[in-house]
Amino acid sequence: MKKIILALFVLISSVCIFANDVAIFNDFPGNYALYEDSRFEEKAIIGLCYVGDNSIIARSYEPKTENELVILMNFVIGDNGIEPGNNLRILKGDFNSSENAKRLLPMIMNWSVSWYTSKAVINEKGSYSYSSDDDFNYLSYIPVFQIDSIGDDNKFKIFSMGKVNDLNDERFFNLNAMPEAVDAESYKITKGKKTDVTIDGLKIPLDSNWKTTDERIYRLDKVTPQDAAFLVETFNYKESGFNSLKELANLLLVANQNVILLAEGSKVVESEGAVFITCRMYDPVQKKITYQETQLIERNDGYVSVATLACYETLYLKNKKYFDSIMH
Q1: Residues 107, 100: contact at Cβ < 8 Å?
Q2: Would you call 35 exposed, middle or buried from its count of C-beta atoms within 10 A (0-12, 13-18, 19+)?
Q3: Mind giving me the DSSP string for 20-49?
Q4: d(CA 11, CA 45)
Q5: Which of 56, 113, 133, 150 is most deeply packed, by most CB within 10 A?
Q6: Each residue's pLDDT tens digit, 40-79
């Protein structure tokens, strides 16, 4: 879990390098979404990754047969809306290798048209449902086509999203099933002496259980050096190239590297002038899940304070009321 907190420091300190104006897509290059599709005879994993320049990589993989198709395609805006550009390349596989492979391109075109038709409403409302040839359920923070699920029978649903490090990132190109986690050690936290900690002008209700060596990161360390951690970072998000806190939140949701973001339970929510991010992250090395809550608090002159609490999910669930009293 410690590397997640360190990654947050790195991300915030270099956050401006991700800012990029995009004509069609809402995304930063590298953002991806992974889906389980069991609507047809052969189950498939469908991956969509935005790679910049209005282009995506789409992947179809069949766990049973191991048949795989990976394509690169771009989009343009024509007289009738979004349409495929001239750059369509097969990176791996063959369109005729299976029924799932045959239907990948027509599906993507259907998804792109329905999404582009609904894009403004999705981003305005945050969640939206739209029916065309399929019944789409959208969430604005999901990458690429913002699809959460298709239909209401759980046969097509997102299971992971993130941001690739490079074009060999196994979290997109080789994640073919939901990972199985093991429980981290957990215990019941006894409340310590009540105190208010001030970080960047914010009063945080941390008790005497929390220790710090630098007055920047506070840790619970009963079982490990870092059972839980709390930190605040403040910076100017507008100078870093972000137009809104929501745009920043959408990046922070997916940008933790070397972990697998589990779509179930991960979200971005706007409430009472603040933006809240919840992440459930699977560590492939430890095989444990970290639960992380982040609150973006807008300050003056384009500054934002990013307050983050992270702990093993098993510890959070056993002490939910305790941790929620810090962040809410």
Answers
A1: no
A2: buried
A3: ---SS--PPTTEEEEEEE-SSSS-EEEEEE
A4: 29
A5: 56
A6: 999 999 999 999 999 999 999 999 999 999 999 999 999 8
